[in-house]
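<purpose> Linking amino acid order to shape
<body> The protein record starts here
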Amino acid sequence: MEKCDVCGAQCLHKLCMHKVPIFSSLSQDDLTHIASIIRHKKYQKGETLFSEGNRPDALVIVNEGSVKAFKITSDGREQILYVFSEGDFFGERNLFGRQVSAYTVEALEPVKTCSFTKESFHELLHAYPEIAIKIIEELEERISRMESALQSMGVRSIDNRISALLLDFAEKYGTSVPDGTLIHLPLSREGMANYLGVARETVSRKLGLLENEGIIRSNGNKSILLLDRSMLEASAGKSADF
């Protein structure tokens, strides 16, 4: 890990401040003030931002890149819980009590972060209570998505869940191109398997079937071209709400 030499003003105009929904209601002057108290860091691919059981002392915002949050199961497998990308935040547990981190966070690619210490963030909440409301809304959405994912494990087939995951990635990481939607995958095939709790071979088989059906087209290991969204939604069992 290395500290970033980007100044607050550059952060404000280029990156994190305008990407983060929790700051969306603030004025330009307010954003300038907040940018002045942000800490900046850089991480290399595979580097750990913090580990399960640690006590994070900051709210961390992903400025560039993406990270995975995961736990190691009792049988030694990696279970991915979240993928956080630009504008997402984590580390909030210890800001509202002395709680340890429930997961490890690791960089999936080179990552830049903006963070606030616990003390500075509490000052922000007192000065701008609307930020607290935005955080509650985001955490509620996160819980809702996790509940939907857990429910889908019991009522939807693995094929449904893989298709739904692709739709979720298309919404968050997709770019419109002439032939469809180019999905820049935040996870490898193995990472997708760890996210869904299935074997890597299962993911590869399903992707192969979708490609044979003309629904997607593989574009190397880093991206997939979604050719037919409606067919993928049908494969997922319903419209994307995964």
Residues 129-155 form the longest helix (27 residues). The two ends are 33 Å apart (CA to CA). The chain has two domains: 2-153, 157-236.
